[in-house]
Amino acid sequence: MRPEDLPEIRHLHLFRDMSEANFSALMASSYAQLFPPSLDLIRQGDPADFLHIVLEGTVELYAAWNGRECTMAVVRPVSTFILAACIRDAPYLMSARTLERTRIILVPAADLRGMFRKDAEFSVAVVDELAACYREMVRSSKSLKLRNSRERVASYLLRQSQLAGNVAGYTLPVEKRLLASFLGMTPENLSRTLRTLEADGVKVDGSRVIITDREKLTRLACPDRLIDGIEPLAEHSGSSIPSAG
Amino acid sequence: MRPEDLPEIRHLHLFRDMSEANFSALMASSYAQLFPPSLDLIRQGDPADFLHIVLEGTVELYAAWNGRECTMAVVRPVSTFILAACIRDAPYLMSARTLERTRIILVPAADLRGMFRKDAEFSVAVVDELAACYREMVRSSKSLKLRNSRERVASYLLRQSQLAGNVAGYTLPVEKRLLASFLGMTPENLSRTLRTLEADGVKVDGSRVIITDREKLTRLACPDRLIDGIEPLAEHSGSSIPSAG
DNA sequence: CGAGCGGTTGAGGCATGTCAAGAGTTGTGG
DNA sequence: CCACAACTCTTGACATGCCTCAACCGCTCG
Fold first, then answer.
1. If you measure CA to CA, which chain A residue comes closest to B85?
2. How does strand B40-42 pair with strand B31-35?
3. Residue of chain A nearest B141, judged by CA positions
4. Is the pLDDT higher at B232 or at B114?
5. If pLDDT is split at 50, 70 and 90, which confidence band does A232 have?
6. φ, ψ for residue B128, nearest 5 deg
7. Nearest to residue A27, comparing CAs of A59, A5, A42?
8. φ, ψ of residue A131 in degrees (nearest 5)
9. Backbone Cα Rg of chain B
10. Spatial CB neighbours of B38, under 8 Å, sequence gap ≥ 6
11. Is domain A146-224 in CATH 1.10.10.10, yes or no?
């Protein structure tokens, strides 16, 4: 691990408040690794050996069943994933693969579990992080069950605009194929939906999004802070797609 | 609160390991309440003032958006719900209503938050509970995205049989209307699906379920421990529908 | 340059939702 | 105790959202 990584990790909500000694101890048993694009990091069902911290690059969390596959989340720096499996010492429920060249810190799950019995501030941070992940998952589930695909796309486009500071134009942070899977639809259906949304105030050309009539798009999307709101976690810098326990 | 309630609450995973003094302190500020059926306990969006513990009866957690509504979970004794919102001091993401006459313990959220900074064992238990809830939500989301409604129904029926001890016959624990909403489909569609499932090894008459060909049903449902598995929490006695953070 | 991949478009089909009606059940109030 | 209202569940007819399959374009990268 590079020495310059430590401050960045230390700055994470999860590690910010723990004692210096405990932080050092945890980092001492951890190590960094650099992965090429499209590499499988984790296979669902495997035992949870390491908490993963993304320092650079992008990671996709996905799930598979019976030959089908879907994207569950996309993780960007600096944040962690599969905390819950590590805590519970249980098998991963999701798989993970890199989307580009990615640098990751691996923290042994056993050390992690030992640490939050030892450091009260750390355990408080873990609780808060997990609660945030849980709530993000509830939001995602609500969106799936209460909205049709057209409404999900509209909300997503609107939310991305908000994350970028309510700008009218921005670039899609992920491939459309992946976005479709995340939103629970086929690439073909997303493509068609984007076409028809031009009549509702948003134009998408390649990966370029331009909101032409925010009011109209908002009327369609009916954004709701109990679905599209952001769980406040200081360093969860606006990820392209909601996050990742 | 009745004195005989305390042992039952104390037996909950969440409170089992904390110190006697801290448990008493927490209970001192809590109180029990008895609610009639079909009563709204919580409205989504409201601030999270109390952790709820179901002692008797049944509670439905549901979500609403834009005039639509869906069931997210059903909570049965003895377990808790909306822990995550209390921890984060954030608005509820789901609403809750009683399905029958229900007795509930209300634990002030502020005391809860104070306590897990004070009692290490308690905070470990909270972490574990939240991680379990998160994982249950991931399972539910996977089921929604990877399976069609027919497969979801088949898995559900099979899982209920397992929870009852791999019996061939059992009674549906919830109304079909509610089950349909939980599984992300309309009552009409559930009704039709159950009819067609008779050809695949399960017969449903009223609320009575009889598995006539377990192997055939299993081939259709493809049960997967990473979706249908049970997050081990000693006192989470087999709830009718996965649980409830 | 050709292979592979992402994206788009069209045609067609299936799954699922919508609307409507009726049977059976439950709960309630006269 | 009965009558009525309200509700669940079911079934049918119909509409439509979404998926599947296939072809094609353009781009990237060996």
1. A131
2. unpaired
3. A141
4. B114
5. confident
6. -65, -45
7. A5
8. -60, -40
9. 19
10. B97, B98, B99
11. yes
Q: What is the pLDDT of residue A125?
A: 93
For position A245, what pLDDT does the model report? Answer: 63
B contacts of A43 (beta carbons < 8 Å)? none
**Cβ atoms within 10 Å of A106's Cβ, excluding its own:** 17
Determine the distance in angstroms separating the CA of A145 from the nearest CA of chain B, rounded to an integer.
Answer: 6
Class of domain A5-118: mainly beta
Token code pair at residue A10: 């230390």
Q: What is the pTM of this model?
A: 0.94
Q: Rounded distance, CA A75 to CA A60, Å?
A: 6
| Contacts across the A-B interface (CB distance below 8 Å) | 166
Q: Tens digits of per-residue pLDDT, B183-213?
A: 999 999 999 999 999 999 999 999 999 999 9
Sequence spans of domains, chain B:
5-118, 146-224
- Of A234 and A56, which is predicted with more confidence? A56
Q: pLDDT tens-digit profile of A167-184?
A: 999 999 999 999 999 999
How many whole angstroms separate alpha carbon B186 and alpha carbon B176?
10
